[in-house]
Design goal:
- The structure holds two protein chains of two kinds.
- By secondary structure, chain A is an alpha+beta fold.
- Chain A has four helices and eight strands; from the N terminus they run βααβββαβαβββ.
- Chain A has helices at residues 11-21, 29-38, 86-102, 116-125; strands at residues 2-6, 44-48, 53-64, 67-77, 106-112, 129-134, 144-150, 187-188.
- In chain A, strands 1, 2, 3, 4, 5, 6, 7 and 8 form an eight-stranded mixed beta sheet that branches.
- The radius of gyration of chain A is 16 Å and the shape is globular.
- Chain B has helices at 2-7, 10-27, 32-48, 53-65, 69-77, 87-100, 104-117, 122-132, 137-143, 163-183, 191-206, 211-225, 231-240, 244-258, 265-282, 290-306, 323-340, 343-359, 364-376, 380-389, 396-400, 402-409, 414-444, 448-462, 465-481, 486-495, 500-510, 549-587, 596-613, 617-629, 641-654, 659-680, 685-700, 702-717, 722-737, 739-767, 770-779, 793-804, 807-820, 823-861.
- In chain B, α20 runs antiparallel to α22 and α23 runs antiparallel to α25 (465-481).
- Chain B is globular and about 90 Å long.
- The N and C termini of chain B lie far apart (73 Å).
- The chains are: A alpha+beta, B mainly alpha.
């Protein structure tokens, strides 16, 4: 029994415990904080019925050439809770928030070439397409697929009446206040 | 506020409002300010309306903070409500506000709506049920979360309901759940089925005699989801309400029913693992006879081997099939060791887990179990290695390092310990330093609710018991490391502001609520928290009471322990200062009272210290005096033995001129240390490491402090500069003939010979040739041809597979791993790690003894 809900800052403790049990994650805590404090609508956790965090998705908004888009930074599901559709649910929730809250045009992510399970999830279940291949993207020299999925984007414009709409609309923040040293790679460990 | 007035922008106003909310949340006072904040927001909305969802969230939470739930509902249903784009989010807030306003029937409707939208939302189902039964206990549970994994036990209140009311409401819940089950039939969701279990549990708690129905539902759930790794943790809360008989009955039902489901190998594997986990959870496994546990472990080992081939093509980072079996086997072996005290079982547990790691290097459970077993048998360097392999960093240092921290603090491995403490403190300090920037980041993105969460989170880390303890321990470690030279020690003390800093910390802690962020659920069953280790006591069936009950005690004990420890540096400093006064007193017949301020402060600290040990200063003195005379045994000091000795040392430091006190202290050291050595006898490390740990602490703490006081005494009796040269002869004549000097010499003599005993004991251990020790280790695993039980059976099963496995069958990765396995190597590593601990300890003892010898020589030159 799982509840997919927005992450709170306190959840970080359990989210990182997830990492101990999934795959070693190289993000520093401030990187998580950077995400949750900037785009809190894009962090979801899967909470099992007894309150345990068993998976999460970490995402952010990015602006390139005036095209507002979301990016999935990290997706993790506990080994004990694989094959329950959690990854799909987490991804769907984050994508929906990108679309509804930030009016993102598309969502991107990186995945290891060798991670067949994750690749299948993205292409078959979630409808992502390969956009590019980034050679030696990962620290260990492995290539990454740069994948994208188009969202409906600005069709339902809600922000019309807002008179202090900041900067470029969806992406009001920049990362300068907090240094983030790691590359933003999506490490998909779900099956 | 000023900025709001100047710019009139919403974000400046919200900044001010958040600050007020935080002030009220942290101080739990100034509630009137909330009213002010509310007024400000209202005014702003009237003139400018509101434009951001986050602003609305702040407004609603402000109203909630003042229990104005109906006002909140009004806002939500008004125009502003449209700011929330995601329907379910809005409904959740609405449900919460209705429930808190006790408008249960409306809340039920809202929650029902959410469940229809997302039938797998467990939190929502609990709220739905709570509202249906007009029970608000769930809110207390959500308000009061202080653990990574919140409690599994939510209290239920029924007393306000008549049986008729209960029946009709529960039946409407059943209807809903049934509908959800039908709606989601093809999606394999656990939610609706677990909801059915929850309903049976509530019925049971209400007093309906439906235990059998509950068992039946659990069994159905097993049929549907029993092969999944999450089954056991899913049903844990339901197992807990069952009576012991019913728990046993349930295990029986599972065993009987699992056999009929054997369509696929993975399913059988999953179900078998589940049954074992349920046996562990219910405590059922502790009631089984030894041979049955052995047989069961052997069966599991065979199952593991049979299924190796299933994992042939898996990516290296993926979980293997049957991975959990080895953890379960090792848990059984540890239990067998506990019951029989046959070391072979423990050795076998090590081998099973090491072999598991050889086959699959990333399995964190194996590493954690191994690190605890290695710690228990005194192979601490290996334990530390396994800990490092967990790759603990960032916030994990806060949640995971409890696995190793305590053992390291009680060990002679100071270099590793120092790194461990430094890494942890660096992470915490960095984070606390950076949090201002991060708070600003959230403000800039106008995520006001996150500002509040984040500030509270920062506080949670700041008040972490582990953080406070580590700060103190890091200072104490420096003092330990430098205790052989009084000059070095004084430099350390100077950096600690003469210990004053930590005394302040101790005062602060007294009024604080400590936070516990450690993830204890990953610990093995036999050491559920760092202070507890069942293996150190006799076997008793563990009754699996909820661990939460221990929390309160733990908080109180931790607080006292940190406070006591933080007084140490100051007491060391003051004792050193006292020596010059005491010496003067004993030499100058006319003796001025010396520095009464220093001794007064020390006395106060001693009083405080004994109070934290649970008695008055005079009672404490009586206690140690009686123990030193043998009128009481050291058992009366309980687990705080080292701290009592610390007290004795500083008590003596405070009253140096009393020969009797010196004598009490000498015999206290002698008695407590020699008692331990005698009880350890010639047993090897594996069975007496807890005694070694106590010895390490005695030598590196109280004894080290005492030897510092002796150094200080000698120093103040020796001419330290040219100025004193003139008086030298006269002065030292007086001193050497004074009874004080004799007392010090006696004390040195006594300490030296006591330490020598410890060194001898260690040397004896080290003199055992490594090969012999490895041989002895391996011999605990050897089985006679005709033996029916005992250790070694499981390893036998696993080794058979190693010998007979074929590359084509298990794949080259597993095949290579199997071929690289060597039992003797693993045994040797353990022995070598134990030896290293001994060598480090011996080195500390020897340097202490040499230091004292030097002081003795200096004194005889006087």
């Amino acid at each position: 029994m799982v509840c997919i809900r927005r992450a709170t800052v306190d959840d970080l403790l359990a989210m990182q415990a997830c990492n101990l049990m999934c795959l070693p994650e190289n993000y520093q805590m401030k990187y998580y904080l950077y995400h949750i404090l900037s785009w809190p609508q894009l962090l979801y956790v899967a909470e099992d019925y007894n309150g345990r965090i068993v998976g999460y998705v970490l995402a952010k908004m990015e602006e390139e050439s005036n095209e507002c888009h979301g990016h999935i930074t990290s997706l993790a599901v506990l080994r004990t809770h694989r094959k329950l559709g959690l990854a799909t649910k987490l991804m769907t929730a984050a994508q929906a928030a990108m679309e509804q809250v930030y009016e993102a045009e598309y969502v991107s992510l990186h995945v290891r070439r060798s991670n067949r399970a994750a690749f299948n999830l993205y292409t078959e279940t979630l409808g992502y397409k390969i956009n590019d291949v980034e050679a030696k993207y990962y620290a260990d020299g492995e290539d990454a697929y740069d994948m994208r999925k188009h969202l409906k984007g600005k069709q339902n414009h809600h922000h019309g009446h807002s008179h202090h709409h900041h900067g470029g609309g969806c992406c009001s923040g920049d990362a300068k206040a907090v240094e983030t040293t790691q590359p933003a790679d999506a490490k998909a460990v779900s099956k | 506020m000023k900025m709001y007035k100047l710019a009139g922008e919403e974000r400046f106003l919200l900044w001010a409002v958040c600050s007020i909310q935080l002030q009220v949340l942290c101080d739990k006072s100034g509630e009137k300010l909330l009213l002010l904040a509310e007024g400000l927001l209202k005014k702003h909305i009237a003139s400018h309306s509101m434009h951001e969802p986050e602003a609305l969230m702040v407004y609603i939470s402000l109203l909630e903070q003042q229990s104005k739930y109906n006002d909140g509902l009004e806002v939500l249903s008004g125009d502003l409500g449209s700011l929330l784009m995601i329907e379910v989010d809005k409904l959740r807030i609405q449900g919460r506000l209705l429930a808190r306003a006790n408008d249960y029937s409306a809340a039920v409707d809202v929650y029902k709506k959410i469940l229809e939208l997302s039938p797998d939302d467990w939190e929502c189902f609990l709220h739905y049920l709570g509202c249906l039964l007009e029970d608000d206990s769930i809110w207390k549970y959500f308000d009061n979360i202080d653990q990574i994994h919140p409690t599994k036990h939510i209290e239920c209140k029924f007393s306000h309901l008549t049986e008729e009311m209960f029946d009709s409401r529960i039946s409407s819940a059943s209807d809903l759940v049934l509908k959800l089950q039908i709606d989601t039939e093809n999606s394999n969701l656990r939610g609706p089925y677990l909801a059915g279990l929850e309903i049976e549990k509530r019925k049971f708690l209400f007093g309906k005699k439906n235990e059998n129905k509950l068992l039946e539902s659990l069994l159905q759930y097993f049929h549907k989801f029993g092969h999944l790794a999450c089954y056991a943790s899913d049903v844990e809360a339901y197992l807990h309400v069952l009576s012991p008989d019913k728990k046993t009955e349930f295990v029986g039902m599972l065993v009987k029913n699992s056999d009929s489901f054997s369509e696929s190998a993975t399913k059988v594997l999953g179900q078998t693992t589940t049954i074992l986990k349920v046996q562990e959870l219910t405590g059922n496994i502790f009631e089984l006879p030894i041979d049955e546990i052995e047989a069961s472990a052997v069966k599991l080992a065979k199952l593991y081997c049979q299924n190796l081939a299933l994992s042939k093509d898996l990516d290296p980072q993926e979980s293997m099939f049957g991975e959990e079996l080895l953890s379960l086997i090792s848990n059984m072996l540890v239990q067998l060791y506990w019951r029989t005290r046959n070391f072979g079982y423990l050795a076998e547990a090590i081998m099973v887990l090491e072999l598991g790691l050889t086959i699959r290097g990333h399995v964190w459970q194996y590493k954690i179990l191994l690190l605890h077993i290695y710690s228990y048998v005194g192979a601490l360097p290996l334990a530390f290695e396994r800990y490092k392999a967990l790759d603990v960093k960032n916030i994990l240092t806060e949640t995971v390092s409890h696995h190793i921290l305590r053992q390291m603090l009680e060990s002679p491995m100071w270099v590793d310990l120092s790194n461990l403490l430094k890494d942890y403190l660096k992470f915490m300090d960095d984070h606390l330093r950076e949090s201002a920037d991060l708070t600003f980041l959230a403000y800039r993105h106008r995520n006001y609710s996150k500002v509040i969460e984040f500030v509270l989170f920062k506080q949670r880390l700041q008040h972490s018991n582990q953080y406070l303890a580590t700060r103190v321990e890091a200072s104490v470690l420096q003092l330990k490391q430098n205790a052989d030279s009084i000059e070095e020690e004084e430099r350390v003390l100077e950096n600690l502001k003469s210990g004053f800093q930590l005394v302040e910390l101790s005062d602060e802690i007294g009024s604080r609520t400590l936070r516990f962020n450690e993830d204890m659920e990953t610990r093995p069953w036999w050491t559920p928290c760092p202070e507890k280790n069942y293996l150190l006591g006799p076997f008793e069936e563990i009754s699996y009471c909820p661990k939460e009950n221990e929390k309160k005690d733990r908080e109180e004990n931790m607080k006292l322990a940190i406070q006591r420890k933080s007084l140490l540096p100051r007491m060391i400093y003051l004792s050193i200062q006292c020596t010059s006064t005491a010496l003067k007193e004993s030499v100058e017949t006319n003796g001025s009272k010396g520095d009464t301020k220093i001794s007064g402060e020390l006395e106060c600290l001693l009083e405080e210290y004994t109070k934290m040990l649970g008695c008055s200063l005079s009672d404490a003195v009586e206690m140690i005096t009686e123990i030193s005379k043998g009128a009481r045994t050291s058992e009366s000091l309980g687990s705080n033995l080292v701290e009592w000795l610390n007290f004795a040392v500083f008590w003596n430091g405070w009253s140096l001129s009393s020969h009797e006190h010196w004598h009490v202290l000498n015999s206290l050291f002698e008695r407590l240390i020699l008692d331990r050595i005698r009880s350890m006898g010639s047993s090897d490390m594996s069975s007496c490491y807890s005694d070694v740990q106590v010895l390490v602490q005695i030598i590196t703490e109280p004894l080290a402090w005492h030897s510092l006081i002796i150094q200080a005494c000698t120093r103040s009796s020796l001419p330290s500069g040219k100025k004193k040269k003139k008086n030298h002869q006269q002065h030292s004549d007086q001193l050497s003939s004074s009874p004080m000097s004799q007392t010090i010499k006696d004390s040195i003599q006594s300490l030296c010979s006591t330490i020598q005993e410890v060194s001898n004991w260690i040397q004896n251990q080290l003199d055992n040739p490594e090969d012999d020790q490895v041989e002895r280790f391996l011999s605990t695993l050897k089985r006679a041809e005709d033996a029916t039980g005992g250790p070694g059976q499981i390893l036998g099963v696993l080794e058979n597979v190693i010998a007979s496995s074929e590359e084509a069958e298990v794949g080259n990765r597993i095949f290579d791993a199997l071929k690289s396995w060597n039992t003797a190597d693993s045994a040797r590593k353990t022995v070598m790690a134990q030896q290293r601990v001994f060598r480090e300890f011996l080195q500390i003892c020897e340097s202490k003894r040499k230091q004292l010898e030097t002081v003795k020589q200096q004194m005889s030159h006087v």
